[in-house]
Specification:
The chain has 263 residues and is α/β, with parallel strands linked by helices. Helix content is 36%, strand content 23%. Bound molecules: adenosine-5'-triphosphate. The site of adenosine-5'-triphosphate has 11 residues, from strand 2 and helix 2. It comes from Allopusillimonas soli. Pfam families: ABC_tran.
Amino acid sequence: MSAINLENISKIYAPAPISLGARLRRQPPQPGHQALSNVSFTVEHGEFFGLLGPNGAGKTTLISILAGLASASSGRARVCGYDVQTDFRQSRRALGVVPQELVYDPFFTVRETLRIQSGYFGLRNNDDWIDEILFNLGLSDKAESNMRALSGGMKRRVLVAQALVHRPPVIILDEPTAGVDVDLRRTLWAFISRLNKEGHTILLTTHYLEEAEALCRRVAMLKQGRIAALDTTQALMARVGGADLEDAFVRIMHDDEFLGVTA
Ligand SMILES: Nc1ncnc2c1ncn2[C@@H]1O[C@H](COP(=O)(O)OP(=O)(O)OP(=O)(O)O)[C@@H](O)[C@H]1O
């Protein structure tokens, strides 16, 4: 049983509702937007896996499907063997997701936020683990601060903490270091690497390819909603050529030969 298993996932977003003016002009309805086409891959337990792709490639859509926030138009997604639709509660419990957007409730303190999140998973008396997470993310002195009083980088640390309160075996980070300072990057990667060494599976999306090269043993590259490459980071760089993963990424994204090709 794998940590993450995706079988032929496709996603077509419904078109925007047709306006009254367009209806009166008898314009034909717009087709939906195909964000993912037959995406299949597996992430094994304990892997540090990179999901890469340019803006709009479909990374967040795929993560939303895994987290049960969006439903696939076709195909099957499983987390730790649990189907994300039919076994939603178990699959969601196995997963910690750090979202790309800073979403938070401004009325609570950091500790309250983490206690509430623990409550969603039926966890009471979770303060020992909450304190450990806060310490490891450099947030101990912010525990009683109100969320709205935190800087953007500090809020992002709380999002990471929130994803970890229920000790999920699989952790998904959607661009966790976008716009954050060197200090947080180092703190975050030290903690996430430690969790990975302890056996947690990590799926990371990032536009910082040097981070992916340093951290991820395997990567999948999405291009226009299709898998363009899927291999170990080292094998991919050796096969495609170039000085580093960024070079390989640029070559793959600019060469149509790779569209829909899997390793
Ligand atoms: N709710 C939605 N309705 C319609 N189209 C959407 C919706 N969400 C995303 N899309 C479209 O689906 C495609 C994939 O978007 P997605 O956010 O998954 O890409 P991404 O790889 O995460 O991009 P980024 O790197 O910019 O975060 C894009 O063309 C986007 O405009």
